[in-house]
Amino acid sequence: GGNGESIRTGMSEEAIRLAFLDNLFYVQGRFLEVASLDDKYKALAYTVRDRLLHRWVSTIRTYQQANPRTVCYLSAEYLPGPFMGLNLLNMGIEEPTRKALQSLGIDLESLIAYEQEPGLGNGGLGRLAACFMDSLATLQIPATSYGIRYEFGIFQQDIRNGEQVETTDNWLHYGNPWEVRRPQISYDVKIGGHTEHYTNEQGLHRVRWVPHETFRGVAIDTPILGHDVNTVNLMRLWRAEAAEALDFHAFNEGDYYGAVLREVRSETISKVLYPNDAPEIGKRLRLLQQHFFVTCSLQDMMRVHRTTGMPIERFHEKFTVQLNDTHPAIAVAELMRLLLDNHHLDWDTAWHVTRHTFAYTNHTLLPEALEKWPIPLFQSLLPRHLEIIYEINSRFLDEVRQRYPFDPDRAQRLSIIDETLPRHVRMAHLACIGSFAINGVAELHSQLLKETVLRDFYELWPEKFQNKTNGVTPRRFMLLSNPGLGSLLNETLGHGWETDLEQLRGLEAHADDPAFQERWRQVKRQRKEALAGEVHKLCGIDITPTSLYDVQVKRIHEYKRQHLNLLHIITLYNRIKRNPALDIVPRTFIFGGKSAPGYAMAKLIIRLINAVAEMVNRDRDVAGRLKVVFLPNFSVKLGQWVYPAADISQQISTAGKEASGTGNMKFSMNGALTIGTLDGANVEIREDVGAENFFLFGLDADAVSHTLANGYRPWDYYNANQELKDVIDLIASGFFAHGDRSLFQPLVDHLLQHDSYLLLADYADYIACQDQVSAAYRDPQRWTRMSILNVARIGKFSSDRTIAEYCRDIWKVQPVPVKLD
Ligand code: 26V
Known about the structure:
Elements: H1 13-26, H2 37-66, E1 70-74, H3 84-91, H4 94-102, H5 108-114, H6 124-138, E2 143-148, E3 156-160, E4 163-167, E5 180-191, E6 194-199, E7 205-210, E8 213-225, E9 232-242, H7 248-253, H8 256-267, H9 283-308, H10 315-318, E10 319-324, H11 331-342, H12 347-355, E11 358-361, E12 372-374, H13 375-381, H14 383-403, H15 408-414, E13 417-418, E14 424-426, H16 427-434, E15 435-440, H17 443-451, H18 455-460, E16 465-467, H19 474-480, H20 483-493, H21 514-539, E17 548-553, H22 562-578, E18 587-592, H23 600-617, E19 626-631, H24 636-642, E20 648-651, H25 663-669, E21 673-676, H26 682-689, E22 695-696, H27 701-709, H28 714-720, H29 722-732, H30 745-753, H31 759-777, H32 780-792, H33 799-811
Parallel strand pairs: 1-2, 1-10, 2-9, 10-11, 11-15, 15-16, 17-18, 17-20, 18-19, 20-21, 21-22
Antiparallel strand pairs: 3-4, 5-8, 6-7, 8-9, 12-14, 13-14
Helix pairs in contact: 1-2, 1-4, 2-5, 3-19, 6-33, 9-11, 11-12, 11-14, 13-14, 21-32, 22-23, 22-29, 22-31, 28-29
Bound molecules: ligand 26V.
């Protein structure tokens, strides 16, 4: 390489250019003149990966020598987003790379735009896990993130005739340059069959699990680099394969096709991600997936633990294991099984290790979202685990009865087994009993957890309960997706804010400076133009950057109330239709988000958004004043275009239903103002940015539960509010369905008869609040000041702060700096 730099590790423009050409030639087998976009993308990806592997090796060496306490994050979902841009940024080689490619006539942005992201998650929970990986590496914490390498991630969403149509996400089709398969790191996964209890030669009780089938999980690793450090942690995902490459017995019997087919079947375990936010879906395979990745991960930790020479009784000193919701909660029973049946620990020792290993994060209060498995299913797949769970439960309930001798119902309520027929295993109870810490993801959520779904556990063990308010990474969601803002912040504050977000406070001094305000508006304007370009490409709709961009992007769910947003849009539409000369602030409403394939009401909401868009966008009377866009296939990648371009962020869930939200933070970090309810992390965002810089409306969580408890009557609101009545009547009339009154009738009926999420109760306040938004937007100085103050005071919501709190209060781990070899 040039200047004595290695072609594999050099960081100069020259070294990167040589490395790129080298990889193009020797990995892709191409030369520049005939290389496709895919070839060039891969050549650059391998160039970056070489440099990652260099740091990875140094990290592993450091960890081997220091034998540090290590965090293991267990999550069924990860949404890391595209890797290229972030790795370049974290390594600090964006500029030399851009120049190296430029000299070859290649545009870096086009390669970054080409990357398809791993959609290995549904929404907030999977994205949170990815932000945590970013912060763990940046804070130099030894950590491994374990999960499932789904062959098909979250479905791709197309919109056809206004409807969501799902197609498979074949993200591995062209290969994935960021992962490294580790065939030597693989473990047996047993399922089904029965258990045999016997006494061994020494007269000791032993249990043998004789499975019906055995699979293998193979490790596939992705390096995760921190910002401005050499720490590279691992995301280790498990892929299911056949126990043996070919079933030789069957092969010898002449059953060649039978043998090959068995291999196909075993791979189905890691085939596809389940949509987790629709009730009642294909149960068996999902439980299998959970057991599959949990047993592989725990066996992997035990392998590493063995290399330290520490006795197995001290497993919990080496590892601390975080359960991301109940999806990995089977780990409590699985660790017990490994310790009892493989390591022959006695029950009390095994239980001591287990209870000191796990901590559990709850991510939802919705009762229908709490995981439970029918006993017959559980029994047939995991007979040994069920035995262990019964034993854990029986000892636990003995304790409970002793604590509360005059309260027999309490044991029923606390039991891992839901005894109401058909009987179920309650995974949240297993997680609570098997963990030393339990946390919610925002102050309000943690409080409500203690008062509602986990109340009995809180009364039993108040010391276990904590709050850890979510955060998001400012590297991906500010620096990478909003480079203009990044430059302005660097110029104004210097470097340092990227990894210490409280430093943004320094912006307060500039909030009223007209010159600074003007530059602030320019940054926003430029991102609005960029988004307009993407919107044009994706849906062929032209949007106007001078209009107010009013954005709601998140999974489609009734509790998130995308349809409340629609009621406002239709209200504005009606106002203009009644008074065509009306002077209103021009708005562009932007929606994005997927519905679970089986969630009929969510799909109907998507149809209504698109139907309203169709009517509004083609109506000459409202042209230049209202526009509605539904962005298909919302993703991390699309989010990077959307968050920086928003003026208003809609966080309008029914109070008490959204555990935290994390999109709310991403918007606010990019200078959008929030219109929101007192729900999830909105409460804390508002506290920090200041009530005067936040558009609050609606019932709070207490008022919501009282309203519902006292016989809520949506009809009364409908009859009392003429604008609301007009809006509902217009939908019911078939106006948005070419005269078909039946299409949206289920939605209208539900609102008028049940309205479980209190849209009608919150409508008037929401509309009034939106009018306040418009008034504020008419005053650019006031608006810009509010926007600057939002960014200045958003520091708490960096995932670095969240992770530092987990490290201090739950994991008890310390940074381990890594030097580059
Ligand atoms: C699951 C289900 C399953 C049954 C039907 C309804 C339903 C609704 C939601 C869910 C998701 C539960 C777990 C989850 O994804 N929670 C999200 O976690 C984020 C990260 O903590 C948090 O910001 C979101 O508020 C929370 O919804």
